[in-house]
Amino acid sequence: MVFKAGRLVAISRRVRYRREEAQGPSPGFSNVEKLRKKSRQRRLRRSSQASRQAAGIPGVPPTEEKDGNLPDIVNSGSLHEFLVHLHERYGPVVSFWFGRRLVVSLGTVDVLKQHINPNKTSDPFETMLKSLLRYQSTGGNVSENHMRKKLYENGVTASLQSNFALLLKLSEELLDKWLSYPESQHVPLSQHMLGFAVKSVTQMVMGSTFEDGQEVVRFQKNHGTVWAEIGKGFLDGSLDKSANRKKQYEDALMQLESILKKIIKERRGMNFNQHIFIDSLVQGNLNDQQILEDSMIFSLASCIITAKLCTWAICFLTTSEEVQKKLYEEIDQVFGKGPITPEKIEQLRYCRQVLCETVRAARLTPVSARLQDVEGKVDKFIIPRETLVLYALGVVLQDPRTWPSPHKFDPERFDDESVVKTFSLLGFSGTQECPELRCAYMVTTVLLSVLVRRLHLLSVEGQVIETKYELVTSSKEEAWITVSKRC
């Protein structure tokens, strides 16, 4: 209706102008014509905006013709915070504009259930990362995409199994470091967790090259440059406006790709004692570019998701004494004085509840995306083909209709089977679980088993941790903790 009305007004005004022009020029004609031209341009802009309204889907029109609602997103602080406001105002299905592209966001479990296809071969978080890195999407037929997905998932499983001893060793090294600190010393948690995650993931993905501390430092620096731009620079359009930043980003990405290409070449046709993630891809029927893209996505995403899951889990444990006590009791019951083994790790049911609640409470990955392959319907709304559809997971994970007392850290909520099913539907557990998150769950479980067994994890009095929402949620400033030895 808005579009039609706009067209009718524009047509009627054009007819009026033609009548006036037919009567011939009047004094000051050139000035009048200039004013009319400007007026026509303004009307065309308004008409264009009206025509870009999503058909019947509530939301906001573009603020600017070229940038769409990007200025609104920047002013909100993040895409997640923009979506929170949008869903509060317009409901579970909303629309806005990325540049000239229509975007539809889904913000409740009910509407997500209508849209999520469990048979999809692409993970929405990985799809979004590939788009931001400007990699080609899978693009093959269904069977090829399914094969590639299985290779990816099997690679995660095999590398976790093969590198369990490595994860245990790195966790124990961190424990020894923390045990050496006086009890009053503040520990920079975010910094230590990122270092631990990068060491763990790089060796799982790329092997013994990253036993060298200098290689780890170099990778972490390049990873930080690339991730910072993926998380912010592309979304707010600022990267393309700074030649220096863009060059730093491209150089860092090139260096990461260079080391991956070198390792892919080394692993082809060779047998190694340690099975790594790249081996699973090399052994499959993938070309070098596909292996490069998949190993890059897994390396980038797993490092940051693992680091932030470890950080948030420990943060919540420091402020939830009863939860930490119950977790310690489970760890003590399962392992006793014996070794930590893969078989016994699987018995840590409460630990898994703690990690699921960490993902929910921290809104660990607040947004994922899919491209609408064919025209579809959600609720009463038609979503046009090739619309970008966002899953506003950060909004959904704090919805009080789904999660009673959503701001309370309560692992007990995952005792409820219906809650577990909802979490699985959202891609945070079960068969729909993001492979990078599955890796993070295992790494964090091993780390917590080692740390909580020997240490009390304590908060720093008076510290307020503010949240920064990007592709993966983090703290705005360093998160500090203290530790003390268990008796």
UniProtKB/TrEMBL annotation:
**Obligatory cofactor(s):** heme
Domain of life according to the entry: Eukaryota
Record field: compositional bias (Basic residues): 35-46
Q: Which residues bind heme?
A: 434
Q: Which UniProt keywords apply?
A: Coiled coil, Heme, Iron, Metal-binding
Gene3D superfamilies given in the database record: Cytochrome P450
Q: Which residues form a coiled coil?
A: 239-266
Q: Which GO terms describe its cellular component?
A: membrane
The UniProt annotation puts the region (Disordered) at 20-70
Does the record carry Chloroplast as a key word?
no
In the record, the note on similarity to other proteins reads: Belongs to the cytochrome P450 family.
The protein here is known as: Cytochrome P450 family 20 subfamily A member 1
Instruction: Tell me what organism the protein belongs to.
Output: Equus asinus
Q: Lineage of this protein's species?
A: Eukaryota, Metazoa, Chordata, Craniata, Vertebrata
